Structure formats: C-alpha cells, structure tokens
Amino acid sequence: MDTTKQDSLAIAEILEQLYFKGLYEGDINLLRELFNPGTLLFGDVNGQPYAKTLEEYLEGVANRVSPKDYGTVFKGKIIAIDVINTIAMAKVNLKMYTFNYYDLLTFHKLNGKWVIVNKALTNVNE
Prior knowledge:
- By secondary structure, the protein is of the alpha+beta class.
- It has one domain (3-123): Nuclear Transport Factor 2, Chain: A (Roll).
- It is 34% helix and 48% strand.
- β4 (87-96) and β5 (99-110) form a beta hairpin.
- α1 packs antiparallel against α2.
- It is globular, with a radius of gyration of 14 Å.
- It starts with a helix and ends with a strand.
- This is Nuclear transport factor 2 family protein.
- It comes from Flavobacterium rakeshii.
C-alpha cells in the first residue's frame, strides 16, 4: 500500500475517532488532540461571518449542550480526502442540531502525526 493511501486512511480514522466523536460528545480534549494550537477557523453560519481562534472555538464547544446530551440528530460524513506529501485536505459534512455544515479541513503531518491547521466552514440550507 502506498503512503498516500495509508495517510488517507489515517486521516479518515482521525476524523471518525476524534473529530466526529469530539463534536458529538462535546469533548474538547479529543478535539484539542486533533488541532494544531495555532489553528484558525473561518467561514459563515447562516450567512453571518465566522472567525475564531482555536481557543475561542473550543470554549464554544465546551459551553454548549453537546448533540449527544441534547439528544439531537448527529451525522458526520467524509466526502473527500486529498493527500499531497505532508499536507492534506478533507471535506466533511456534519448534520447536527438544525445545521447542515460543510467543513474544509487542512491537515499537516507534524512530527509524524496528522493535525488540523485550518478549518473553513459553512452552513447550507437543505
């Protein structure tokens, strides 16, 4: 198996075990494990600009009722993963609460570990 395929599988596993699970459960420790400390998040939610540092984002996750505790629908889906050397992009769809998010996650392999270094997001009406 070539490295690109192995890396794509590793990123898929990270998304399933850390990203989706962390968001569903509201577990910022899982999310903190996945994000590089300097990560910035940009996008729009319901047409309103969204810009946060990682710490602002994690604080928001920590202070909301998680989808698990809220008892709401949560579905995370990996749409695509593209790996080139030590960088990668993942496109995912998250359905939670009343939102239908699309996230573009930029990964970088640092010290042998894939971490998110940037997140762009938008909410799309279905």
